[in-house]
Design a protein that fits this description.
The protein is mainly β. About 0% of the residues lie in helices and about 40% in strands.
């Protein structure tokens, strides 16, 4: 085959150059994340059949003490990866302006085709202990009638 003669030694790829930086799946469901850890693909009931996001970004963000940032904001410091020997994400994001660190452990349940997201928000002592998190689906950064938005409150222990 012709591709056997291609030499990729010395070629280095950066996360922003790849179509999807992380993918999670179980054979029936696949969730793809871009370099900012925003969901870009949700394939179900067959991987590769129907992309329910149509490639649009699904945004997540945090609101703390009057300040707000989406995860695709450039101020986030990101460490994206997988838990060892698994298809479970091991992602840590820090935002100096919000003063928080967010740890994500996401996976697709093998039996139920559920996308499970475990989120742990930490902040240094003395900062607010209540935060709000937001998620949207759609092509706009601001929730409109064409987007779905959900909100949850995170209370530090």
């Amino acid at each position: 085959m012709w591709w056997r003669w291609l030499d990729f030694s010395g070629v280095r790829f950066r996360a922003k150059d790849l179509p999807r930086s992380l993918v999670l799946g179980n054979g029936n469901t696949l969730v793809g994340f871009d370099a900012t850890y925003s969901v870009r693909d949700i394939y179900y009931p067959r991987v590769g059949d129907a992309n329910h996001t149509m490639g649009n970004v699904c945004r997540a963000g945090f609101f703390i003490d009057g300040k707000f940032a989406w995860l695709d904001d450039a101020a986030w410091e990101r460490k994206l990866g997988y838990a060892e020997d698994s298809l479970v994400s091991d992602v840590t994001l820090g935002h100096p302006g919000l003063g928080i660190t967010v740890k994500f452990e996401d996976y697709i349940d093998l039996a139920r085709n559920w996308f499970i997201r475990n989120v742990r928000v930490t902040s240094p002592p003395g900062l607010p202990s209540v935060a709000s998190s937001f998620t949207t689906t759609g092509s706009s950064k601001a929730p409109t009638s064409a987007t779905r938005c959900s909100m949850s409150h995170v209370i530090a222990a």
